[in-house]
Amino acid sequence: QVQLVESGGGLVQPGGSLTLSCAASGRTFSGDAMGWFRQAPGKEREFVASTIWSGRNNYAAYYAESMKDRFTISRGNANTVYLKMNSLKPEDTAVYYCAADPRITAATMKQPDEYDYWGQGTQVTVSS
Predict the structure, then answer these.
(1) For the segment 61-93, what is each residue's pLDDT rounded down to a tens digit?
(2) Alpha helix locations (H) across the chain?
(3) How far apart are CA 74 and CA 36, in angstroms?
């Protein structure tokens, strides 16, 4: 059974940092894209970042334009992905979801409906 489990969320002050982790199980995700979305109350699910297989054990990283200077996505191994978030702002408050799918490309990575596998989400709250 495929499962994605996020961890690392919590309460942080503005300007602080958090690192989210996502661990996938059930099969190898070496050829899958793995990435992060977020959803704030009353808003649609929003693309944050994704890693897409680029061959030879390498993954290309992609970011939402508004987050690329503060967030860093990385692949720990075939089945783990991390999101390092710096200089957090109150507007970063949301539930952050890990997502994975083997068919994702740079053209489809921002569309939640293109991902088959999702975690349960982890809450990030940025507040003083």
Answers:
(1) 999 999 999 999 999 989 999 999 999 999 999
(2) none
(3) 11
Joined tokens for residue 78: 């075939």
pLDDT digits (tens, 9 = 90+) for 49-64: 999 998 877 899 999 9
DSSP element (H, E) containing 18: strand 18-25
Strands 3-7 and 18-25: antiparallel
Q: Using CB atoms within 10 Å of the CB of residue 15, give its burial: 0 to 12 exposed, 13 to 18 middle, 19+ buried.
A: exposed
Helix or strand or coil: residue 88? coil
Q: Which residues fall within 8 angstroms of residue 70, CB to CB, at 6 or more apart?
A: 85, 86, 87, 88
Q: What would the pLDDT profile of 21-56 be if each residue is shown by its tens digit?
A: 999 999 999 999 999 999 999 999 999 999 999 887
Closest CA to 60 of 26, 24, 104: 104
User: Which residue(s) pair with 61 in the sheet?
Assistant: 51
